[in-house]
């Protein structure tokens, strides 16, 4: 009979997950995904259930990596909260299963996993797509994702200047001025906001800059304007995900040039010399790889006790 599932909660996930181990595994998984070999990896576009009364969605994000023996799903609830709300923007749980027997091996906190794997994939996008010698990083947003992005970008790169812009409803009149100031001249811009209308405008973005766009994960939500979308070479984590869920892509009518995995596999070029947008939607396989790493680390620690 199978062992009962282990529960690995937030503090422990935080102790076990490290960017230096996570990033190479995510790069391999992104590459595998882009080969579209179902004998290697299966990951459908997430299913979303609207939570109309609460202005949110529940996303179900399964992934199966046959050769790695990894089967998992994440449940993630995300909300279009009013700014200043004390309720969380996202809550997530990852379930890791044994693919042969179908039993649950572990249930783990998905918030740290979501924060870290999302930031790690944005850092991979910057590694692949930003111009050599990039000096100025701008982060738009000051929530959970802003912090994880700051942490991993500081660990991986050596920017000379980091600008963090925070939206406050109370200072709406200064909103656009300070935003423009934060963005002008930046080499890399990370958008990690909960906004549903464009917050980043192409006219402010330096030619050749790289933008990692992480928010606006619904077909009618935007973070970037049409000018930027049309000027940039657009990359995504998953083409199908982007075409089903990204308002910035669907409503601007632009095409996804490549997935990050295509660049990793060498089947599509990295246009570092041009303005690039990486549109991140989040993928079940990113959670699967992270959960496997957490579980393996957990087992290694517990076998020593
Ligand atoms: N692509 C992916 O894989 C993932 C995307 N996300 C998305 O990333 C975004 C940030 O997530 P968290 O940091 O967890 O949220 P959070 O609630 O911790 O932070 C959100 C930030 O957005 C700002 N904000 C809210 N309304 C705004 C507006 N109208 N204009 C500009 N800024 C505004 C807030 O002041 C705050 O700084 C959300 O849209 C979330 O859905 C989250 C997880 C994974
Ligand atoms: O991939 C995820 O996890 C999420 N993606 C978009 C919205 C919040 C969570």
From TrEMBL:
<dbReference type="GO" id="GO:0005737">
    <property type="term" value="C:cytoplasm"/>
</dbReference>
<dbReference type="InterPro" id="IPR023401">
    <property type="entry name" value="ODC_N"/>
</dbReference>
<comment type="similarity">
    <text>Belongs to the ornithine cyclodeaminase/mu-crystallin family.</text>
</comment>
<dbReference type="InterPro" id="IPR036291">
    <property type="entry name" value="NAD(P)-bd_dom_sf"/>
</dbReference>
<protein>
    <recommendedName>
        <fullName>Ketimine reductase mu-crystallin</fullName>
        <ecNumber>1.5.1.1</ecNumber>
        <ecNumber>1.5.1.25</ecNumber>
    </recommendedName>
</protein>
<dbReference type="GO" id="GO:0050241">
    <property type="term" value="F:pyrroline-2-carboxylate reductase activity"/>
</dbReference>
<dbReference type="InterPro" id="IPR003462">
    <property type="entry name" value="ODC_Mu_crystall"/>
</dbReference>
<dbReference type="GO" id="GO:0070324">
    <property type="term" value="F:thyroid hormone binding"/>
</dbReference>
<comment type="subunit">
    <text>Homodimer. Binds the thyroid hormone triiodothyronine (T3); T3 binding inhibits enzymatic activity.</text>
</comment>
<dbReference type="GO" id="GO:0047127">
    <property type="term" value="F:thiomorpholine-carboxylate dehydrogenase activity"/>
</dbReference>
<dbReference type="GO" id="GO:0042403">
    <property type="term" value="P:thyroid hormone metabolic process"/>
</dbReference>
<dbReference type="Pfam" id="PF02423">
    <property type="entry name" value="OCD_Mu_crystall"/>
</dbReference>
